[in-house]
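Researcher: Next entry in the queue.
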Amino acid sequence: MPENPGPSTASPRLLAIDTATEIVAVAACGPAGLVTRTAPGGAEASASLLPAVQAVLAEAGLVATDLDAIAFGAGPGAFTGLRTACAAAQGLAFGLGCPLLPLDDLALWAEDSPWRDEAGGPLVWVAVDARMGEVYAAAYRRVAPATWQADVAPALYTLDALAAAFAAVPPRRLAGNAPAALGDRWPVTAAAVHVTLHDRPAALLRLAASAWQRGEAIDPAQALPLYLRDKVALTTAERAARQAAT
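Model: Structure for this entry, 246 residues:
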């Protein structure tokens, strides 16, 4: 495996994939420009991902061996979705002999928000439904184009714990699907809320290009999904207890 060549002034030839949500996001940058595509995610992600990859590479004027690196959404997110993206990226990278760029899926929501151009602006909280009455959340500050610094690191929260975190660092900007998914159970309001995806594949590729320029590519053998929940399944009794509590 060749070492990461590091930042380059030339436009990198990148493929970026993400399957952390119910929508598969794929993007590539090549001689024909930026090409993006979405496809069904969830249970269909493993079937829809590779055809989408083949399509965007072709439309971008690339063959797989042209790629400088492959970026993937490492999490946090759906357990199966994270494994799908990591495994697909690793398989392609091992075959091609190119490095990987693991990306923060919560920062992806911030980059896809209306506040991605607010350099030095207020924190952007991101809150994503983690199911089972819990939320993946983090707070980011934009420090450069497509570069987000986590002032509050990604974590898995109960609703009570999230309310406490918001009390400590009140959200003025909030992105993510948790408010819509949780409805009346959502614990707090923000000055501005962005709950829908705008152009996730393009945001994914912007994060990938920024990570490449910062020299963050890794050997495929080092790639791991970011799991924030140790337990991904509950017993019947545990499910009943959770339902009774909500």
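Model: The first helix runs from residue 45 to 59.
Researcher: Noted, moving on.
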